[in-house]
Design goal:
mainly alpha, single chain
Length: 70
C-alpha cells in the first residue's frame, strides 16, 4: 500500500495507483473488512449488479449513504 497516504481522506481520493495505492489483494481485504463490519460491501454489490467496482473513497462512502462533512 502507498506509504504517502494523505492525512485527510477526500471523496475524490482514488483507491488505486496515485491515490491510496491499493492493489487487488488490498481491495479484496478491504472488501472483506467492510463486509465484516457492515454486513455488505460495495465491491461485492457492484459485482453482483454488473456495475464497475468502486474507484474512489467517495464511492465507498456513498454506498453506505454516509454524508460527507466537506
Amino acid at each position: 500500500m502507498n506509504k504517502d497516504v494523505p492525512d485527510e481522506l477526500t471523496d475524490e481520493l482514488g483507491l488505486y495507483a496515485e491515490g491510496l495505492g491499493l492493489d487487488s489483494l488490498d481491495a479484496a481485504e478491504l472488501s472483506a473488512q467492510l463486509e465484516d463490519e457492515f454486513g455488505s460491501d460495495p465491491f461485492s454489490a457492484a459485482l453482483e449488479a454488473g456495475d464497475d467496482l468502486p474507484e474512489t473513497v467517495g464511492e465507498i462512502v456513498a454506498y453506505y449513504g454516509v454524508a460527507s462533512s466537506a
